[in-house]
Task: inverse folding
C-alpha cells in the first residue's frame, strides 16, 4: 500500500485557548509520520474554522486531491479536528474506504480501513458531536452570564470603543449621541436629526452618512443609559425573524452616555410619534408610482412627501440621508400620475404601438426557439459521447474480467454508474427542451388575443381601487424617468418591450 499521505489540522478560537494550536497538531502529525514511515506530502491547515459541517475551504481542497489519488492516507491528531458531526465523519470514512483510502488518528493509531476500529470511530464521532453541542451551550451560557454581570458581548456601538472586551466611552462620538437624544427630546424627527448630522459631515461607525434607521437604532438602545440587552437574537441563525425573542435587560458595568431622565423624555416622544404615524398613515396604494418612478438625479426610488396639503414624490435617498447624497427632487403627484395613466391607457389603444410590440415579441420568441434548438443539439452530442464512453468501459471490462483486481472492478462500476446517471440527467434535459420547443411552436403570439387582453386591462383599470391600479401599472411598467427639471416625462420603460423604452416622441404620438 502507498505510504503517501497528507495531514489535516484545524483550530477554532476556543481551541487556541486550550492549547490545541496548529503548531502543536503539526508537530504531533509529523512525529507519527516519521515513526511509521509515511511520506507526508502536505498538511492542510484550517484556521478559526468550526467543524459543524464539511464546508471548509482546505478540507474541500484536500478531498479533491485525494480523489485525484495524490494521497492514500489522511493523518489527523484527533477525530474532533476532522469533524464534530457523526454523520459527516461516517460518510467520509465510507467514501474513502470504497477507494482503498483511509484516515488515521495519530493519538490512538485508529485506522478507518480496519473494521475492528469502526466502533471506536463511532464513539469518538458521537463524543465530538456532543462536545460541539456543549460548546454552543457554553457559549450561550457564557454570554448570558456576561450580560447578567453587566459585561458587553461584542460588536461595534457608536459612542463607545471596545477595549479588552469592555465598553469605553469615545468622547467625540458620545457628544454626537447626546445631541441625537437632546434633539429627539425636543420633538425632532429621525429624518431631521439625520440631516443635521449629515450636513456637518458626521459619519456612522461604518463611515457612512446617517440614515433614519441608524438614528432610530441609537435612540432605542439601552446601552446609552448604562444597561445591557441580552437574548433578543439568540436563535436568529437557526430561525431567522421567528427566532427573535423578548430580551433581558441588565445593569451594565460601562459608563452611561445619557441620563435616565433624558432617556425617559425620548421614549415619551417616540410614543407620541408612533400614535401620530398610526393616525396619519397614508392609505396603502395612495401613491400609484412608488417602485417605478425614479429620482431624476440619483436614479433611486421615490417616497411620499406632503406639503401644504399637496402630495409629492420625493427622492428616497434624500428622504433617508439628506442633501449630502441627493436633493428633494419633488414631483407633483397629481401631475405625474395623470400623465402616466393617460399615456399607458392610450398606448394600449394604439394599433401601431401594439403591432410593434407583437413584432418585437415574435422576433424575441423566434430567437429563444433558435437558442433552445442549439442547446438541444449540444445535449444530443453529449449523449452520444457519453454512451460511447459507457460502451468502451464495458468492452474493457469484458476483455480484462479475469485479470482485474477488486479495486479495478470497483472503479469500473463507479465510473459506469456515474456515466449512466449523467445520461439519465441529459435525457431528462433533452425531453424538457423538446417539450419547450414544441410548446413555443404552438403558442405563437396571436394579434387578436393580445388586443383582447389589453382591452380587458383597460376595463379592469377604470373600475378598480387604487391599490389594484398600482399593481396593474407595476405589471406593465418597469421604470419611469422624468427630466432633471421635473417638468417633462422623459421615458417609460415597459416590461413587454425587452430593452426598449417609449421615448418622448412616441409618447406624444401615443396621446395624440
Result:
Amino acid at each position: 500500500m502507498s505510504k503517501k499521505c497528507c495531514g489535516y489540522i484545524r483550530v477554532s478560537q476556543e481551541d487556541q485557548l486550550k492549547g490545541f494550536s496548529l503548531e502543536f497538531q503539526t508537530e504531533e502529525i509529523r512525529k507519527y509520520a516519521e515513526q511509521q514511515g509515511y511520506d507526508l506530502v502536505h498538511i492542510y491547515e484550517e484556521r478559526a474554522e468550526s467543524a459543524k459541517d464539511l464546508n471548509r475551504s482546505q478540507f474541500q481542497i484536500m478531498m479533491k486531491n485525494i480523489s485525484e489519488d495524490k494521497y492514500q492516507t489522511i493523518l489527523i491528531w484527533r477525530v474532533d479536528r476532522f469533524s464534530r458531526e457523526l454523520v459527516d465523519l461516517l460518510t467520509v470514512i465510507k467514501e474513502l474506504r470504497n477507494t482503498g483510502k483511509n484516515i488515521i488518528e495519530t493519538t490512538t493509531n485508529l485506522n478507518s480501513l480496519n473494521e475492528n476500529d469502526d466502533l471506536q470511530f463511532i464513539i469518538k464521532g458521537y463524543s465530538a458531536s456532543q462536545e460541539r453541542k456543549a460548546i454552543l451551550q457554553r457559549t450561550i451560557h457564557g454570554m448570558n452570564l456576561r450580560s447578567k454581570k453587566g459585561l458587553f458581548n461584542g460588536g461595534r456601538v457608536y459612542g463607545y470603543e471596545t477595549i479588552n472586551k469592555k465598553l469605553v466611552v469615545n468622547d467625540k462620538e458620545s457628544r454626537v449621541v447626546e445631541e441625537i437624544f437632546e434633539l429627539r427630546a425636543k420633538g425632532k424627527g429621525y429624518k431631521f436629526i439625520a440631516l443635521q448630522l449629515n450636513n456637518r459631515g458626521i459619519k456612522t461607525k461604518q463611515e457612512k452618512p446617517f440614515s433614519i434607521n441608524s438614528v432610530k437604532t441609537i435612540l432605542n438602545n439601552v446601552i446609552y443609559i448604562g444597561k445591557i440587552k441580552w437574548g433578543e437574537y439568540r436563535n436568529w441563525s437557526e430561525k431567522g425573524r421567528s427566532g427573535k425573542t423578548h430580551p433581558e435587560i441588565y445593569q451594565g458595568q460601562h459608563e452611561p452616555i445619557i441620563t435616565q431622565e433624558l432617556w425617559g423624555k425620548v421614549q415619551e416622544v417616540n410614543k407620541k410619534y408612533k400614535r401620530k404615524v398610526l393616525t396619519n398613515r397614508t392609505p396603502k396604494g395612495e401613491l400609484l408610482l412608488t417602485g417605478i418612478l425614479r429620482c431624476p438625479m440619483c436614479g433611486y426610488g421615490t417616497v411620499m412627501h406632503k406639503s401644504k396639503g399637496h402630495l409629492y414624490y420625493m427622492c428616497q435617498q434624500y428622504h433617508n440621508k439628506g442633501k449630502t447624497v441627493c436633493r428633494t427632487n419633488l414631483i407633483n403627484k397629481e401631475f405625474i400620475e395623470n400623465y402616466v395613466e393617460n399615456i399607458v391607457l392610450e398606448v394600449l389603444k394604439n394599433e401601431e404601438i401594439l403591432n410593434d410590440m407583437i413584432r418585437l415579441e415574435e422576433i424575441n420568441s423566434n430567437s429563444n426557439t433558435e437558442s433552445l434548438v442549439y442547446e438541444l443539439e449540444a445535449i444530443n452530442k453529449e449523449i452520444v459521447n457519453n454512451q460511447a464512453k459507457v460502451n468502451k468501459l464495458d468492452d474493457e471490462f469484458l476483455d480484462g474480467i479475469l485479470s482485474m483486481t477488486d479495486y479495478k472492478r470497483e472503479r469500473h462500476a463507479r465510473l459506469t454508474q456515474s456515466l449512466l446517471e449523467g445520461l439519465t440527467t441529459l435525457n431528462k434535459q433533452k425531453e424538457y427542451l423538446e417539450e419547450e420547443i414544441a410548446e413555443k411552436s404552438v403558442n405563437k403570439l396571436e394579434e387578436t388575443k393580445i388586443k383582447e387582453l389589453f382591452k380587458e386591462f383597460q376595463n379592469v383599470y377604470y373600475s378598480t381601487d387604487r391599490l389594484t391600479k398600482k399593481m396593474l401599472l407595476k405589471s406593465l411598467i418597469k421604470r419611469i424617468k422624468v427630466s432633471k427639471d421635473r417638468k417633462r416625462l422623459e421615458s417609460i420603460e415597459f416590461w413587454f418591450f425587452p430593452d426598449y423604452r417609449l421615448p418622448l416622441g412616441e409618447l406624444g404620438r401615443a396621446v395624440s
